[in-house]
Amino acid sequence: MAAGVYFGPPEICQLTWCFAKVPLRDPALLGRLSGAASRRLDDFDGQHFSNLAWGFSTLLVADAPLFAQLEGACSDRVVAFGPQELANTAWAFATVPQPAPVLFEEISIEVRRRPGSLGPQHLANSLWASAKAGRGDRPLFEALAAGARRRSPELNPEHLTAAAWACAAFEDGAAPRSCKRCGFYDAPLLEALARAALRKLPEFAPRGLAGMSWAFATLGNPGEAEDRLLAEAVAEAAAGRARELNGRDAAAVVWAVATLQLQQAPLLEAVGAACEGGALGLAGLGAKELGGFAWGLGRAAASGAQAHPALLEAIACNVDETLLPALRGDCCASRPLDQRALAMLARALGALGLLRPLWELLDCLLTAEADLSADLASALIAAATQHGQQAREARLWQRLAASPRAVGLRAELLAVAPVRGAAAGLVSAGPHAGVAVDAAYGARTYERETHALQYVLAHAPAGDAAAVLAAVDEFCASRRCWMKLAGGEKAAVLETVACACEPELILEVGCYIGYSAVRLAAAARAWGGRVISMELDPFVACAARGIIRHAGLAESAEVWVGHSEQLIGRLENQGPMVGLAFFDQRGSRFCEDLERLERLGLLGERALVVADNVLKPGAPAFLWHVCAAGGPFETRVVPLRDFGSVGVEDWVSVSRSRPRRQRSSAAKQRWVPPRAVLELDREADAMRWRSIDGHVSPQEWREFSRHMEAALAQAGVRPQMATDEELHSWLASAVSRRIVKK
């Protein structure tokens, strides 16, 4: 091989290709080939460039100097590349990965200039490469998607999986705080991919089944067309081939089936049997895969299904033998933790009753002094509270109080009951230097909420609820800052509903800083009612507790910390059923939380359900559900201005449960919204995530609100509107019917 340095471009590339095919990863040989190629790049043509890059990337040899040279040389000559060379070069640079913005821009221009020249394999590989590189190049994606739609019948299973994965993984300027990937949602393309995949499903490898299910679940709940048929068929095929699945594939399919809310029992039984028989292992799964797998099982358990004992044992073993050692290593090396995955895993372990591994995970994170994200801390606090682990809960609150993000909230964080009752030696007042929160997830600060609390404490007399609410209004007006509050006209609607039905127990999902909780609790005190408000973020929850306590309502309103999927079940132990539910969280969760309340029998007879922001940014699937003719609910919608958003229309919906005899037979079954409604749900979610990062102007909100109203009508969602007077009359009839029934 010493003479290899004298080889010309064809020989260099042919040798690299051969090594990649074997594969043979000989550092010395590859080093010589790299050196020879570097000296002869001026003599390379498009095929040589793409073959060399393909070979090194296939071998996962990240030769940064070579790829840097290749980027410059390819960028200058990409206009002469053929379709195969364009696709292979893009694939190679995305696989290494090697940042190559100039090269990808040149490839994008060429692909868009001659879209009809790319074959099925070129289209699939180019889609995959563009998504993998994280380019967010929508014009390129649209051009490739159009080609893939036309040639979808020619795509083989591997290409179909690559194209679907690319759509799900596409990042269009991922939001820094929300860290939410919305994907590239092209309904005609997804239908075409689903049709082609259904015809070729027996040819799919297990990895392909997992990839397709993950992609369609990530892109959102499919409607009633081919994509839903595909999701169901993939779940059935995976169940039939469970013994061929590896742990990662099984985790992807189980997570996807749970996310799409498909029938889980056959798949989980088959996967459990494969695990019990030794054909399937979970030992190698990382936090993300294990969290998704366990969460899928937890969803099934929440619906009353029994988890296979072998799967529970395998999850516990993975936590002990794989996850915790890796977690300790990451903490010792100060590497960022995947806190989103750990939060999902923590919630799942609690749902499955796997308490020993859950406490081991919690103790490991506390010992390592990790700076916990709000989501992960919330999951752990909810579990510790539910299972009476007061010492652990106290340590969690201490850890949050020591976080740099807790400035201004430390007193409230340390005022939590378990912390007050803990031994004095447990309480630490100063910040610590622990493992940092991943910069892409969870690293938000709380200046706005902290300043709102401080303003209330300084400007409102203690024990005066009306003054507290006025102080929050003044704070928002004086700082010209928007806060997610149901104030103004919305507050009047909410108070009207509460006073009309005088419920013993009011549930609020989405507490934020406690503005609505104060208003509801102040009203409910007149008839002896109380409020339970759920808040995911423990920092925000403490600000809310401070405001509620200052209003003198600590005995009438309590704030539960955790995700609604963890907390709603705890309402079974609260005595009276929920008489009024107020949804003020993410609109795409309204349906799921309402369904959980119904399934657990927690809603009182003819309870009222109020939902905010059902137009801006919207809750299309929820509106479709509660406004359906002959459905389980009767609904009125009040149009009004969004609080703090001048001139932007929003809707508040008020729903009451219909007696079962008044429901149509179809309404007694679980309905799946039509595709048009689900697509609007995606739009609403995407707009919501954009707004989290402050990327939506007032004019954009006005335009979006008008668009959502028109699109809902076109999709068949035409709620019955009500003025204030009409709402009062409707509520009066609801209350009188309840009195007559009693």
From TrEMBL:
Sorted UniProt keywords: Catecholamine metabolism, Methyltransferase, S-adenosyl-L-methionine, Transferase
PROSITE patterns on file: SAM_OMT_I
A matching Pfam family: Methyltransf_3
EC number annotated for this UniProt entry: 2.1.1.6
Membrane spanning residue stretches: none
First-tier enzyme category under EC: transferase
Keyword S-adenosyl-L-methionine in record: yes
Single GO biological process annotation from the record: methylation
Keyword S-adenosyl-L-methionine among record annotations: yes
Gene Ontology molecular function, alphabetical: catechol O-methyltransferase activity
Domain of life (superkingdom): Eukaryota
Family to which the UniProt record says this protein belongs: Belongs to the class I-like SAM-binding methyltransferase superfamily. Cation-dependent O-methyltransferase family.
Name this polypeptide is given: catechol O-methyltransferase
Organism in which the protein naturally occurs: Alexandrium monilatum
The organism's taxonomic lineage, starting at the top: Eukaryota, Sar, Alveolata, Dinophyceae, Gonyaulacales
